[in-house]
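So, could you explain this one?
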Amino acid sequence: MKEKQWTGWGPGEQAEQHYLVEPRALAGGGDLRHVSAFLRASGWKDQSKSGGPLSLQSPDRKIRITYDPYTLPGGWTIHGQASGHQDEWWVTLGRQTPVEIVAGLTDALTRPRSAHAPNVWTPLHEQRWRTQPDAGHVTAVSPDGSAWMQFQQDSNGRAMWWSGAEDEQGHGWTASFTATTPMHLVQSFSAALASPEPAMRPRGRVPYSARIRTTSVSVLPSQLSAWQQARIAAARAAAWAHSSVRNSRPYTTARPRTTVASARSRR
């Protein structure tokens, strides 16, 4: 899926009506460029083919992200190859998963992992999600009941995570994580899911639901472009900083080993 590039607008531009949608989990899919442009600016390779799904590969070729709207059920797939102590892992997200929530996970793929132990529940509890323990699983539900995050264990005792959101008509999306998905990525997802920040959608792209709240705003096209470019610039700066740190590590070579016998022979 080849995407149109962002372009600039000249003087005399007209403001466009957009809406701030709350909760963000019910805002609908949104603009894919929120995810893809950030990854490309972070050094990911766009392997999309004309007329085909969006496909991006990490600089080390170990992670692939695709978005396929042409198959059912369609949506996002994130696949990480086995590497070192990390087993192969998968994450799937429905096509109506808001890009702001998808980006919570995919942006984390471009950053160094924190030294702190991840806790998936912390971002949810901070936003007053209710925890509902049940036989075999624990579920946290958003204050308005529209979104959830669930933990359970498979037959081998491995952690499994499942999430999603739906409106009063049952329309929405789900996300699933294999037991081997790195926990810091699951936490980054839960933080984006629970964020109180609204999602912005243009007129005509706001889902119809009694569960959402909207605020009308007037936005200039140049403002939209500037916001997108600021996000891209942040990705490029982070990628440059990471590359600089990696390339500035001192190069050391092993000192030649001198045996006791050879040392004595030179005396």
